[in-house]
């Protein structure tokens, strides 16, 4: 079963007036994983889709949704999958790909059948992102052996982290989709600090590996008009092109960043110094 919901885009002047409840309603994705279901959120920000596939007692197939007006989901789209749970299987037009935790799979435009399976006692959690595509590129698995790994931050500023570029144009041919995974080291809590915006790409964040009882405060908004959303484990948030995207947790955690837009240059961003934020 595939379930979907729709989200509009928002003007930054409007977002300044939002209450906590309204901010969470429009940008937070509180539930991604439902037994034997694929849950999707279609956003007007670059027509991006954020979702989760959760096969528990049976396999689940990625079905088209009304918003796409397509015969099958990937008729005009590409797909990125990162497993954040136990070992799982993804079947792509009959070809079997095994994904362990923190491994990724890119699936190109034109693939007609994507099936998610739980092969044994372990429970996979498949986090998925999708963007419109103009060209068909081959399906490709990415793990830490062929990822681009970068060490960032410092212990003294509590933002030491390992960034794993998984589905990026230096590793995988894509139309516009980019995804990666960042792991904060123990004792570190700040992500994407110093912060930045990138007006030619939107972004979505998915927080996971957050211990029970802990929280992450996700910061968004224009650099001089910031807002925050407190988030729990395995929740996602939509980040508009005009918004910063940064966070601070009450313990260390991991997160997946996904992007789409008109530029695949990872370094295309406008930095904001910490003391410039308001």
Automatic annotation (TrEMBL):
GO terms for molecular function: 4-deoxy-L-threo-5-hexosulose-uronate ketol-isomerase activity. Gene3D superfamilies: Jelly Rolls, pectin degrading enzyme 5-keto 4- deoxyuronate isomerase, domain 1. Zn(2+) binds at residues 196, 198, 203, 245. The keyword Isomerase applies. It is an enzyme of class 5 (isomerase). Its cofactor is Zn(2+). Binds 1 zinc ion per subunit. SUPFAM superfamilies: RmlC-like cupins. It holds the Pfam family KduI. Pathway: Glycan metabolism; pectin degradation; 2-dehydro-3-deoxy-D-gluconate from pectin: step 4/5. It catalyses: 5-dehydro-4-deoxy-D-glucuronate = 3-deoxy-D-glycero-2,5-hexodiulosonate. Keywords: Isomerase, Metal-binding, Zinc. Its EC number is 5.3.1.17. NCBIfam families: PRK00924.1. Belongs to the KduI family. Catalyzes the isomerization of 5-dehydro-4-deoxy-D-glucuronate to 3-deoxy-D-glycero-2,5-hexodiulosonate. This is 4-deoxy-L-threo-5-hexosulose-uronate ketol-isomerase. It comes from Mucilaginibacter roseus.
């Amino acid at each position: 079963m595939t379930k979907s919901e729709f989200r509009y885009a928002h003007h930054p002047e409007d977002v300044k007036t939002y209450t906590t409840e309204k901010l969470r309603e429009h940008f937070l994705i509180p539930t991604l994983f439902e037994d034997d279901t694929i849950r999707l959120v279609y956003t007007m920000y670059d027509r991006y889709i954020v979702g989760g596939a959760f096969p528990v007692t049976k396999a689940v197939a990625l079905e088209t949704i009304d918003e796409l007006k397509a015969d099958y989901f990937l008729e005009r789209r590409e797909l990125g999958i990162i497993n954040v749970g136990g070992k799982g299987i993804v079947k792509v037009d009959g070809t079997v790909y095994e994904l362990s935790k923190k491994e990724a799979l890119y699936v190109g435009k034109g693939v007609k059948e994507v099936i998610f399976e739980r092969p044994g006692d372990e429970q996979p959690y498949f986090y998925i992102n999708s963007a419109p595509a103009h060209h068909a590129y081959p399906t490709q698995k990415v793990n830490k052996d062929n990822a681009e790994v970068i060490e960032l931050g410092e212990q003294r500023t509590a933002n030491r982290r390992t960034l794993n570029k998984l589905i990026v144009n230096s590793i995988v041919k894509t139309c516009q989709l980019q995804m990666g995974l960042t792991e904060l080291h123990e004792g570190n809590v700040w992500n994407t600090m110093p912060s930045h915006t990138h007006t030619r790409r939107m972004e979505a964040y998915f927080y996971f590996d957050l211990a029970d009882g802990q929280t992450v405060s996700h910061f968004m908004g224009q650099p001089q008009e910031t807002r925050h959303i407190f988030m729990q484990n395995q929740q996602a948030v939509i980040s508009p092109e005009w918004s910063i995207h940064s966070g601070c947790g009450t313990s260390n955690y991991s997160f997946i960043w996904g992007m789409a837009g008109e530029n695949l240059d990872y370094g295309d961003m406008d930095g904001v110094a910490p003391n410039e934020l308001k």
